[in-house]
């Protein structure tokens, strides 16, 4: 039975987090994973190139070497192992799983906040504090998106939870009550 990309990502990502925690290199590994994640995001064909059967190992080696350059030993070994097992297509899932587990362990929650106007720094800080209390998180990072259709208030999406405090939803509720 073949494993799906998500399962592979979870297994490798969790293993990398456990190894980095055990070695006390969690912050350095986090920085390397974030940088590697950006490389894969900026170069969507990278994984396909590294798994391309028509290219020789000698053609792939310079790419692999550049990915490993300056990385911690744990990340270098991860890159090499994933390459050796022919799983480079799963690397974005592995990196995402590591970041997700890192955030869970450190109490970090990423919230998407939609508002009618851009939130000020003070508003984001106040919302972050309220969300941290409500979600039991140590740190909240806010990605603010502007959508004038919200009219007022905010819609927060975080940890599979949606908090809709928008005027648009309040008007929709009133409309439903009136229409019976």
From TrEMBL:
InterPro entries: ATP_synth_OSCP/delta_N_sf, ATPase_OSCP/d_CS, ATPase_OSCP/dsu. It is found in: Cell membrane; Membrane. GO terms for cellular component: plasma membrane; proton-transporting ATP synthase complex. Keywords: ATP synthesis, Cell membrane, CF(1), Hydrogen ion transport, Ion transport, Membrane, Transport. It is a peripheral membrane protein. GO terms for molecular function: proton-transporting ATP synthase activity, rotational mechanism. This protein is part of the stalk that links CF(0) to CF(1). It either transmits conformational changes from CF(0) to CF(1) or is implicated in proton conduction. Belongs to the ATPase delta chain family. This is ATP synthase subunit delta. The lineage of its organism: Bacteria, Bacillati, Bacillota, Bacilli, Lactobacillales.
